[in-house]
UniProtKB/TrEMBL annotation:
The keyword Amino-acid biosynthesis does not apply. CDD domains: TA_like. It holds the Pfam family Beta_elim_lyase. The keyword Transferase does not apply. This is Low specificity L-threonine aldolase. Gene3D superfamilies: Aspartate Aminotransferase, domain 1, Type I PLP-dependent aspartate aminotransferase-like (Major domain). Residues 26-312 form the Aromatic amino acid beta-eliminating lyase/threonine aldolase domain. Keywords: Pyridoxal phosphate.
Amino acid sequence: MADAPPVTQHPATDAVRHHDPEYRGFASDNYAGAHPEVLAALAVANGGHQIAYGEDDYTAHLQEVVRRHLGPRAEAFPVFNGTGANVVALQAVTERWGAVVCAKSAHINVDECGAPERVGGLKLLTVPTPDGKLTPELLDSEAWGFDDEHRAQPQVVSIAQTTELGTCYTPEEIRALSDRAHEHGMAVHLDGARLANAAATLDLPLSAFTTDAGVDILSFGGTKNGLVFGECVVVLDPERVRAMKHLRKLSMQLASKMRFVSVQFEALLAGDLWLRSARHANAMATRLAEAVRGIEGVTVVRPVQANQVFAVLPREVTERLQKRYRFYVWDEATGEVRWMCCFDTTEADVDAFAAAVAEEMATR
Ligand SMILES: Cc1ncc(COP(=O)(O)O)c(C=O)c1O
């Protein structure tokens, strides 16, 4: 890790800088700061009084911006975080006896502290997958027992785009899954914490693999794409969704000063910031994968389809590298690590990290 940075103070605030703004690791796209254009947008929305709890001018305008991307029926509900977005969205398409079919590796199953179960009161029916992706056949393995009072009723399938394993569904794959879910009378939820990265990979508009592919409700990620914080639940098919505004409040996701979440999304989506940032993060992951592929003893173990690289390398090398750069071991059993690139990862960061991997491998 870098030495402690000098403490600096901006003349306009009593806050002091406690970190090194030049340090960047490969742990998570949540480790990055906010994009300067997003910070500038926050200042634009500041000043004066605006109606609280979403009746402000920024949240109203956000609806138009979101509709440009996701179609005329889309309605955006800004929330604080991704877990909250998922829990609100899933409740809005289920009843008290409802269940959610998802991949075993899904964030809602692995990384949300049981919030869908405890806060949403929902049973998760999980399906093992080789690559984080569900298929109609895999959905069928848990979509049964309809009308059986002994079984929690499968009422929604939840997929992530991109998946937690860095893979990306094609629009056709999502369409096939949506068609099968709808045949079962189930809704389709898409966890789009990295939706922008998927659009960048597919080189398609956001609607191509959401609205037009049969997705009913979306958790639209902003934080990993450069916001200070904030995600949106976007209702795509209002006929399959109910009670959003009540569920958002009940689930503690209603921001009183909502203008500050909405304006950040406007900064992302009104122009091309969302895509520029995602393309850059993806390109950095591709660069990193290419650089480490040439190092003997390092294996990139999954396709690099977005901003993540998954690799296996000797454990002692991982431990030494982690003293220099932050990143996570993804699977303790296999020693698989995850390296994540962000909107602010530079080519120099990637090259220096790849050089560090080579160095540590050479001193085994
Ligand atoms: C696939 C996925 N969904 C949702 C989230 C949102 O999580 P959080 O509640 O930390 O904002 C994340 C964050 O890591 C994620 O990777």
